[in-house]
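Homework help thread (please don't just give me the answer)

Our assignment gives two proteins as sequence + structure token strings and asks us to describe the second one. The first is just a warm-up. Here they are:
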Amino acid sequence: MNSVIPFCKLMLSSRLVRTIMVGAVAVVVQTIMFETLGVYLKLFALSTSAVIGAEVAILTNFYLNNRFSFHDRQHNISLFWRLLRFHLVVSGSVFLQWLFVFTAEHATQNLLFIHGAYAAGIIIGFFWNYTWYKLFVWRQHDK
């Protein structure tokens, strides 16, 4: 039991682990929107619901990453411009998610296949996003 607390502290000190945790929250937010708007209420096409959910998740993700994952970074631009950069970066990920779901929903009506495409888009999008977060949105500036 004594080794659990240092392990937890070590894990939380890892930027990658913090980013994964924030990303998991964003995935939950996006999935709730996707399922509610596209699958259950059928208000929008599934691919459109994925994009709407992604936008809500983007705002959640930015706020949490800014406060939790990358809070120690020095910035020479305003919060607004970082949010704009963030949107630019994640637009590639959102496009991938949309493309996967759009292709799946036009290839089949099988929800299992469509959900697999949705999950694949999120997983591939995570690697895209994390790379560009570090290089562009929250890159380290000299003090």
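The one we have to describe:
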Amino acid sequence: MPNVMIKVPATDAGYGAMKRLMSEGVNVNATLIFSPMQALKSLDAMEEGLRIWRATNEGVSAKGVLSVFVSRFDRMLDDRLERAGVQPGRLGIVNAARIYNMVESRRESALRALFASTGVKGNAYEADYYIKELMAPHSVNTAPLATIEAFLEHPLHAPKLPIDEEAIATFFDSVERAGVDMQNVYDKLMSEGLEAFKEAFARLLLHLE
């Protein structure tokens, strides 16, 4: 249905599924995106699916979002980065900003960045921190209800994205100097995310039975 998106994890198997679904006019949510490489492969697959659909169909094509997970980076690395003199609470945002720039550079109106995992755990930041910091044209934020309610108390904020690529590169240089291997971080978060998805899917199937 036009108001439904099929969630597909950004894995090697998932990229083929994204292409196939979009080629058949089905909306896709490319999810569990942590790294720019996952975003790049998702974009390529979804755009190829759109090209196939548009070659034989007229009218509005399927739409897609790339769900970039945000706060998990900061929960994992804030303490370590702060000890190394790197501003905490920024890694997830700057990583998401890099992927947002990638999506927007394609100039494909059917595809948007979606910011996921934007709730704040504990009292480290204001409840609506990740909404305010990730406000951007042509994007989606799937914040928890309490986070949205906190934002609506003071909703007038200017968009913070895009962030200049040079500033993004400078920030990641500081993360590297702090001894953080981002590929290891991406791999760990993806592994944890896939495990959580498998558990949730198993529970869903159990209830359906």
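TA reply:
I won't write it for you, but here's a hint about the kind of observation we're looking for: The first strand starts at residue 6 and ends at 9.
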